[in-house]
Amino acid sequence: MNAFMTNGTYDFLLKLAEKYPAIKFHFMKGTSNDVAYYEGTKQSVFVSGRAFEVLVQSGDILDSGYVVMNNIPVTDEGVPIFEDNFKKRQQAIDKQEGFQAFRLLKPTKGNTYIVFTQWDSMDSFEQWKDSEGFQKAHVDTKPSAYFADRPFVNTYHMIEKDKK
Length: 164
Known about the structure:
By secondary structure, this protein is an alpha+beta fold. It contains four helices and eight strands, in the order E-H-E-E-E-E-H-E-E-H-H-E. The protein has an eight-stranded antiparallel barrel. The longest helix is centred in the N-terminal third of the chain and has 10 residues, at 10-19. It is globular and about 45 Å long.
C-alpha cells in the first residue's frame, strides 16, 4: 500500500475531496500548514506532493485526533537497519491508552522516512512519551550513524470535514 500527502490551505485541500469523491482523504491542521493525506494502491492524484510506501501499519486513521510525524532522514547504508528496528518493535504502542494508528512511511523519492502516529489527544501522546513503554521502544534510537540529517517533528490536529 502507498500513502500520499500534500500541503495547502484547508480550502484548497477541500477542493481535492470534491474532485475525487472516491478517495478517503484525511485533513490535518498544523501550526504552519495544513495537510491532506490518503492511502491507496494507485498513483497519487496530487500535482505536487509526497509519495510513500507503507512499510508498517497498525490501527485505522480516524477523522479526529492528534497526529505526530517524526521525519527521519536515513542514509542509504542505514536503510536496512532502520527498517528492521521498526519492524521488530511495530506493536510497542498499540496497547497504549489513546493510541489510534501507526504508519512507517518510506519515501518513494528522497531519504526522509516518516513515523506517523495518531492519538485521540495531545495528552495521550504526552502520556506515551512519559511512559515506560516509550523508554523501552526508544532505547536504541539515539542519533545514529544511519541518520543522514537531523530528524524533525511535525504535529497536527485532524480536521473533521464538517468542522473547520
